[in-house]
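Q: Structure tokens for this one, please.
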Amino acid sequence: MTAFQSSEARISGDNELVRALNDAIEDASEIVLGKKHAIRLALASMAARGHLLIEDVPGVGKTLLAQALARLLGLEFQRVQFTSDLLPADILGASVYERETGAFRFHPGPIFSQLVLADEVNRATPKTQSALLEAMEEYQVTQDGETRPLPAPFFVIATQNPVRQVGTFPLPESQLDRFLMRIDIGYPDANAERALLKGRDRREHLNDLAPCLTPEDLIRAQVLASKVHVSDALVAYVQAIVSYTRNAPHYELGLSPRAGIALVRASQAWAFMAGRAHVVPEDVQAVLSGVVSHRLSPVVDSPPAGDNVAEQIVQEVDVP
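A: Here is the predicted structure, written as tokens:
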């Protein structure tokens, strides 16, 4: 049996898991109306074992989406509201002296949860933002000279306001690169907004959600997604995309090798959620904007920007 045939057998044997993932997308779409593609990208990021950054204006459902995903995936959830006076210890935890024992005892912070929502992450100072770096990269926290592992699975979903708004601190490139994807939600279309205006508060609908998966199911989905077949031609396509960004005059810096790996992983997750055992170029194109939009900085006064980045790459780079 070839590697491709073996992968086909694995995926076909886990149709129920694929169906459960798609059920989660449908259920989340009842909470965040009219945004199924953004929800699918968010879930693909998690299936690829990656963290997610949601950037948009206030009030479009960023926090609601994170809460819905936590409930549908059965994950332990903690929300941290990032503000200018937030300290790293407020996220990681701290050691407190106990008079009864005469010793210090570590009290874990909200980072020790399976899904951590860093709400309005760019309203905290760079020092506090950096408290997430080790956790996001190495799935552990070092505090008071001791390294403590984080639970599995572990995700950070961060929401971010546009940097032009008052009281924000731009995330440095090293922090942005920790996020596998960046997505935006955008305003709802007319039909979705009408349903929002006529219906009850969407937060009330959260109480009606039942988990579609368990944390163990999600870990199994991550393993299966990582085994989706990636052909040599597909790898060549990803390499061509990375090379294009490094040589095009539109960007200050091209995509790093980590970005190329992220693009492959996200494409595998997207293919897995579609029930396929191999990645096709359309999978790469579907996740491209989410993976590269926060990693490419257009040269000043030189388009493209935003989603146009991915659109131009798709137009300029030929599929092998």
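A few notes: Residues 3-227 form a domain with the Rossmann fold fold (CATH 3.40.50.300). The longest strand covers residues 93-98.
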